[in-house]
Structure formats: C-alpha cells, structure tokens
## 1
Amino acid sequence: MTDTDSTKLFEARHLRDVLGNFPTSVVAVTTSDPNDVPVGMVVGSFTSVSLDPPMVSFLVDRSSSTLPKILAAGRFCANALASDQEWLCRQMAKKGADRFTGVQWQQSAHANPILDGVVAWVDCTIDKTVELGDHYLVVGLIGDLNVASVKRPLLFFRGGYGDYTSTAQLLLDSHLRY
Ligand SMILES: Cc1cc2nc3c(=O)[nH]c(=O)nc-3n(C[C@H](O)[C@H](O)[C@H](O)COP(=O)(O)O)c2cc1C
C-alpha cells in the first residue's frame, strides 16, 4: 500500500481518535541552546529502545520548531512528568509560551535541564535520527538516568490527562476502609 492509498483510507481525525485510545506517558524533552537558554517540548511518544547499548527514543513532528534546537545541541533529557504537573505539560506544549516560567531545574551531566518534581529522568546524547513519514524518530544513547520522586506519573488518554492508580493500591484502600 502506498502513502497515498493510506491517506485515502484513514481520515486524520479517525487516526487521532483511535490512536488516542492507547494511553501514553507525558514526557518533557529538554535541552539548551548555545547561550545556555533552556529549551523544551512535550512528547507522548517516548519509549525505551535497547538495554545494551542503553537507548531510548521519541518522535517529533517534522514541522516542530523545537526539533532543530534539540538536533543542534545533540543531546536531550527525557523528564517523566508527575500527575501534579499538568500545568507544566500545558505550558511546555504551548507555542510561543515561555515554557520555563516558574520551572525550577538542575543541569544534568550532559548540560540538559532536569526538571524539579518529575518522576524520573533519562539524560542522553543523540545517537541517530530517522525520518519516518511526517515525523523524525530521535534515538538517544543514555548517559545517566534516575528516579527522582515517588510521585505517580501524568498520563494522556483519549485527549485528556489522568493519574495512574495501581490495582494493588485500590485493593489496599478498599481493605483499609473496613
Ligand atoms: C500530551 C501531549 C503529547 C504530545 N506528543 C508529541 C509528540 O510525541 N511529538 C511531537 O512532535 N509533538 C507532540 N506534542 C506537541 C508538542 O508538545 C508541542 O505542541 C509542539 O512541540 C509545539 O511545536 P514546536 O515544537 O514548534 O514548539 C504533544 C503534546 C501534548 C500535549
């Protein structure tokens, strides 16, 4: 099937509606420009790739204005946002916004911003980029990584934000009630 055929088969709206049923984690990808100004964007496409060598990846729209900055830096940090950071997600995903207003962060070993209050972070150098349709796959080689808090992750599902609750926690809560 060619690209043209698949475009005819699936309306963009239908693609988005169905694929939105696959829940994703909300990750702020951060880097900095040559003047050490922090740069960031939100992705729902972060995933682990390989254990040996240790690699992760995310996908960026070809039209993203943040992508060239990430590629120019050649490094990024993937920050897993916590369930109390929906405001940060909205700010980091907004075009034209000062995405770091009110955001505290520390510099990683690779000079990327590690955001305060996240669940975990992965600090990378870019290993390769692959053009895939209207997106670029950015593959990072992990230099360092850590769990930053015991908070729960922010999730994205059917166009809305939510909080993760483990089944074990629900069971425990129901038992504690009696
Ligand atoms: C929950 C969520 C997930 C997103 N996932 C992606 C993604 O995987 N790839 C992407 O390119 N943009 C994604 N976006 C959009 C970008 O965060 C943001 O809107 C985009 O970076 C703005 O364009 P810019 O890079 O030109 O500033 C997502 C936005 C939200 C709110």
Note: The pocket of flavin mononucleotide is lined by residues 26, 41-45, 59-61, 64-66, 89, 93, 95, 156 (CB under 6 Å).
## 2
Amino acid sequence: MDSFDAICIAVGAGQPRDIQAEGREMRGIYFAMDFLSQQNKQLLGETMQQEEIISAKNKHVLVIGGGDTGSDCVGTSIRQGAVKVTQIEILPQPPIGKNPETPWPYYPLILKTSSSHEEGCTRRWCLNTKAFIGKNGHVTEVLIEEVEWHREENGQMTMVSTGKTETVKADLVLLALGFLHPVHEGFLNELGVKYDGRGNIEVDKNGKTSVDKIFATGDSVMGASLVVRAIASGRKAAENIHHFFCHEQKK
Ligand SMILES: Cc1cc2nc3c(=O)[nH]c(=O)nc-3n(C[C@H](O)[C@H](O)[C@H](O)COP(=O)(O)OP(=O)(O)OC[C@H]3O[C@@H](n4cnc5c(N)ncnc54)[C@H](O)[C@@H]3O)c2cc1C
C-alpha cells in the first residue's frame, strides 16, 4: 500500500446470488460464472483437470434465472452439446414489443430474445425452485412450483405460491440469479473499505472510499451494471485521482 500514491479498486460485482433450497449442496449445481469463465479459459487454450471441468455435453441443463447471464449459459450449453436446455425465471414473462408500464424514458421492460435463445431452448416463467433431487449426491431433477404475482394496493408486487409443483430432469444446474455486490471476503475486507446498504463499496462525491488514497469504480460501486456505465465510471475515477494528485501537490 505504501508504495502507491493512489489505488483504484475495480473488482466488479462478483458475489453471485445463491438459492436456498433443499439439496443445494449436491454435485452438478454451479454458479453461472464458474461455468462461463471456465469456457472462456478453455477457448484460450488453458488446460484443466478432467474432474474440474463443468461440461453440458449430453446433459439435461436447467438454467435458473432468466436474465442475460442465464442467456449466456443457454448458448454455451447448447454449443457444448447439451441434450436439452431449459431456462426458468421466477418473474412473469415480460410483454413482447411494447410495455405500457415502462414508457420512455424508463428502461423498457420487454421480452428479450437473444441469439442464444434462438439456438433452441425452452423458456418458462413464474417458476420458483423448491428442491434439488438427486442420486448418490449428484442432482438428477429439480422440483419447481408455479407462482403468481399479485399487485398490492401500494403498487408492490407480491409472490403467491400456487401449490402446483412438477419436477424437471436436470443433471447440470446453472445458477444465474444475479449478483449481490463485490466479493467482500479477502482483499476488500482486509483493506477495510466501508460498504453501502447494498454491500457495494461506498465512495464519496470524489469517488474516494473510506480508506485514505483508495478510490473505487465500476460495478464494485454501482452493483452489477453495463459495460458503458463501467467505462464512464472508470473515466470519472481517473479524473478524480488526477484532481486528488493536483490537490496533494498544492499542500
Ligand atoms: C455473464 C455476463 C454477461 C454480461 N453481458 C453484458 C453485455 O452483453 N453488455 C453489457 O454492457 N454488460 C454486460 N455484462 C455486465 C458487464 O460485464 C459489467 O457491467 C462490466 O464488465 C463491469 O466492469 P468492471 O470493470 O466494473 O468489472 P468487471 O468487468 O467485472 O472486472 C472486474 C475484474 O476484477 C477481477 N478481480 C476481482 N477481484 C479481484 C482481486 N481481488 N484482485 C484482482 N482482480 C480481481 C475480476 O476477475 C474481473 O476480471 C455482463 C455481465 C455478465 C456477468
């Protein structure tokens, strides 16, 4: 630390949201990023032990989470040679084309169909994961339940169980339920930076964390977002650090 005049943390928002359901500890259930980043490493020619490899080849794959990360899991699974890929989402299916509830300038909440989806998968909505069922410690099926979403008087949506359950065959389950905040354990906790109410790194109006000389930027501050926002945030951090140095020199 002492050998640097300023430090900028840009570690992203890598803490995945987990699922609390019976059987979660079974083999065959992975976080999306473990699967996706391994595929990238393999494409770059990195070798790994056979037992480390997460492969969708000849598998019935269930992707839990209907967002962009889930969509990347769908495409990667299909290209690896999965027998069948199913993607489930807890929220209702968004409208196709236009959504009167999100007019301009709001972000349009509409159904997104990616090239991965077009490669062929089953997409389903309003499904909650109840339990992972397996044999000899390896997942073979997932128990899911249909849910309904009711709008309360205050406009808030509440999830209601319907009691209608079914099992889906799955020997590879990929968890793509979003990201909570940056990983706290290790580096960040050791630095002692403060977090905001959502667990992201707290910064002041100058982009500085609670620790002297340490700045933070990108998803580690905003939470999981988009490349364009991360680039803008990185530029702002560079500007802030420049001002910090100018101010230090004047002292
Ligand atoms: C699967 C997936 C698909 C996405 N697709 C899109 C898309 O299509 N379009 C879009 O705009 N956005 C997309 N995003 C979001 C986008 O990737 C992020 O918003 C953006 O990359 C954030 O940039 P960042 O620099 O803050 O963090 P990141 O790009 O996450 O970079 C953080 C880096 O820090 C490294 N790191 C973590 N901890 C440490 C440590 N202790 N020491 C050293 N290095 C560390 C990480 O390994 C990582 O390489 C996607 C995200 C995911 C997960």
Note: The longest helix spans residues 227-250.
## 3
Amino acid sequence: MGLEAELEAETEAARAYEALLVPALFGEWASKVADAAALRPGHRVLDVACGTGVLSREARARVGPRGSVTGLDPGRGMLGVAAELDPEVRWQAGWAEELPFEDAAFDRVVSQFGLMFFREPARALREMLRVVEPEGRVTLAVWDAIEQLPAYAASAAILDELAGAEAADCVRAPFALGDAARVRGMIEEAGGHVVAQETPVGEARFPSV
Ligand SMILES: C[S@@+](CC[C@H](N)C(=O)[O-])C[C@H]1O[C@@H](n2cnc3c(N)ncnc32)[C@H](O)[C@@H]1O
C-alpha cells in the first residue's frame, strides 16, 4: 500500500471511530474527565492520546478564548479528523512517552482511555508530570478490570475457547490497568501524588443493527 492509500485508510478508520465508538463508548467520559480535572477559563490544557478529540473539544469549551488546548496523538488519521471537527485546538503528532513540550508548559494534562495502550506507560506518566505546572493536575481515565464488565469478560472467555488465548488477549488488553492500587503505585513511582481516585459507572450504547 502506498503512503497516500495508507493515510486514506487511517482517515477512514478514524471517521468510523468518531461516528461509532465515540458516541458508544468515549463521549460521555469527556465531561467527567474535564470535571475531575477542574478545567477553568484561561487554563493551558494538554490532551494526551486525544484520538479524534472528544475530550479536547470539551476542554476548549471550558477554557474559553483566554485558554488553549493541545491534543496529541500518534495517529495521523485521528488527528486529521480531529482537525476537521475543531480547527481551534492545536493538534500535535507525537507519542506520550516523548512529549514534544517544555517542562511545566501546561496547567492541566488530561488523558482518557490511552494509558493502557502505551508501550511504556511509566515513561508516559513521567512525561505528563514533567510538562504540567508544579501546582497543576494530571487527570487520567482507564477502564476498570474486565471482571467488572460481564459482556467483555464473556466475549474473552468465548474467544479463549474458540480462537485461543492470543485472540482473547486482544479483548482483555483495554482492561489491563483495571487494578486501582496498581495504577496508584505506577503514578507514585513516576513522582506523582494521587489526590483522588474513583470508579464511576458509565454505559456503552451501540446502535442496533
Ligand atoms: C481508545 S483511543 C482513545 C482516544 C481518545 N482519548 C478518546 O477518548 O476518544 C486510544 C488512543 O491512544 C492513542 N495512542 C496509542 N499509543 C499511544 C502513545 N504511545 N502515545 C500517545 N497516544 C497513543 C491511539 O492512537 C488512540 O488514538
């Protein structure tokens, strides 16, 4: 596949992500994460692993014209769709493990449903703490353990039986950071101080077929 065709395929995948998965799974969390981050007018916000930007858009509405929002993601298709939806956010290609920003460049760093997919989550946490103001805040959302989500646990069990552990592990992967004590330990090891940790309940809503 040529480079142009590759980008086209990535853009199509990102459009499908925005049309189907954002309303079904991610949309409702943007306001919850923004509330937990206590975003205020004038804040400089970084959204790590922004995808198509649902949380960045929420952040921009809250920080207003005096503030600024930067959305970072390695996915070119994701960033392209994000830029179509909100040209006012600064969309930045990059990896969480090597944030292309100065120390203390942001008042708030937010990230929803990305950390469990990073190759080096500990390094990414150190980077997020580096680029936030010493008095700032990093707010992260990860999924709970798969055992708390019966539909996914059942899917993984069926795949285990019919297709083997490798296929089932793909279903389990998003829930890899579902152990709150482990996540707290990772943050503290990275130099952070956990001020609050909670497990709110959301609802996945897929359209009927
Ligand atoms: C499940 S999506 C979540 C996207 C977005 N936060 C949302 O709520 O819709 C996970 C995102 O993590 C990004 N990602 C994966 N590895 C990453 C890394 N090492 N650094 C930054 N982003 C990464 C992917 O490109 C993808 O957009």
Note: The mean pLDDT is 95.
